[in-house]
Predict the 3D structure of the following.
Amino acid sequence: MNHARAERAALSDLFAQLGPDAPTLCEGWTTFDLAAHLVVRERRPDAAGGIVLKPLAGHTARVQESMKTRKGYADLVELVRSGPSGIYRLPGLDQAANTTEFFVHHEDVRRAQRIWEPRELPADLEERFWKQIHRGARLFLRRSPVRVVLHRIGGGVAIGGPKEGPQVELTGTAGELLLFCFGRQSHAKVDVRGDDEAVARLMDAPLGV
């Protein structure tokens, strides 16, 4: 089982365990909303564009609500579990496109609960995430108001944000740095160092793709 499928299975189990009304780190979304989002992303290419393109977001939201009404929570969870679907079934695309997606959303559910602990990720998954950060730091941090220096525990540095001005330094594992870069600043287990004002601005910034 590849990492994308492992994260999908673990998230589906957690969905089933928590039920439709549990909180997530996705603002305003319950587990029901997140399950519907994942199904729309994979199975409704006509509506998936609104996930990344704001002019289409209204249509995507309407399709997502319709999906909740028509399918119900249990069926949506099983659709998530049964994937990958559609284009994501092409060889290699599931691992390439879904590993980060399902890892981040798995943590969105885990870390929104009252009790949770960070996971120790497999070494090859950590390495995969670090390569993604190293390549994509400037994209992930393009809306950062301050320069950000990312230090990976065990070695490695990546830089994003403005080239000049205040600087904040983050230290953590690749998985935790990835979550920070994807806008989960308050729930990522990283060491944050810098001027108090610069840190506060970074913590409130809309990071991510």
